[in-house]
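Typical record is below.
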Amino acid sequence: MRRMIMAALGLAGAAWLAVSTIGSPVLIGAVYPTGGSQGAGGTEEYRGVGLAATYVNRRGGVHGHPIRLRLEDAESWDAAPGAVERLASAGVSLVVGSYGSTISRPAAETASRLGLVFWETGAVGELSMKATAGGRVYRVAPTGAALGRSAAAFVRDQLAPRLHRAQPLRYAVAYVDDVYGRSVGGGAIAEIRTSRLPMAAVFPYTLRRLDYDALAARIARARPDVLVVAAYLEDGVALRRSLVRARVPLVASIGTSSSYCMPAFGQLLGRQAVGLFASDKPDGDDLRPDHLLPGAAGELRWAAAEYRRRYGDPMTAPALAGFAGGLALFEHVLPRSHGFSAAAVAQAARTVRLPDGALPNGSGLAFAPPGTPEAGANLKAASVIWEWMPCSSTSCLTRVVVWPPAYATHPIVFP
């Protein structure tokens, strides 16, 4: 089955890159999971990158040079270094990836060690100083720390004032203790502490032999009003079920990109998800083109229609992240680069500045310079806040964008 998926992706890539450009191709490596637990999202994000290559190639490529993608599958963290090394052996100097935070870190470290540019389109987890110090690792999507800060700030600025309480809300943060969870959880903790809000407790946890009922009981004993959760799908759902069973009296709860925002989260929890919030990237079908700059609006309309035509589904957040991240590189950085070497592309990336709304996911582009705490991170990456709420049908559940107002599809329903 995996060989069939890889073959199908290869054929799709060939179809994407059938263009009328005349220059020699620009070979760009791609490291994404196309199978395993992260395969669905990785495939969607790679499809988005492929659409970006198609879009640029149909307009003449990069100064007449068509973009050609070479995919190396990496289903887990230990497969990432080998995937990057194979691309380097094939003469690739630019690598895009990788959807998963656990894959992104070793992929970025290997690319940096080999002197390649690593262009992260979707993963939000922590990257090591070893990876970012060389100035050739760039992340277009928001960092996990930014999503965590946005989650805490949304509760502080938008939800808390609606309660008209004399005393500030007490916060707790629960996070899976890995590169993804530490990034998101750390961002939320930093925002809470910087705001001098009461911190009830912090709950890092490991997935191995996790007792969700025991964790819920610990959270209950801390008596928080607000719980921020950085979890994957399975542990996020299991923890929420345990909190409901324990009747923990939370005023509000907000999660992030790898659980609370996912359609499967609502499908698994049903009514138990109602009223929960999520801090994450937007979907293609939920982002309003009229709030983007004209060029980005046209790109979004084209991509959403083309994705649905090809795959029969709406453009998901990973697909849109891949499309926007691909365009950032193919359309805005490479044309400004003096050649396609890693050094030239890295130099161009550091100089490109795009205003908010210039990319089809609502982002701008401005990378933090090397030597700074956020080196390589896109300081203009866009994110939104989702809320789970019932449809008109009592058995139906939907998620809607409620913040910021420019991208909201529904007003906040709280308390």
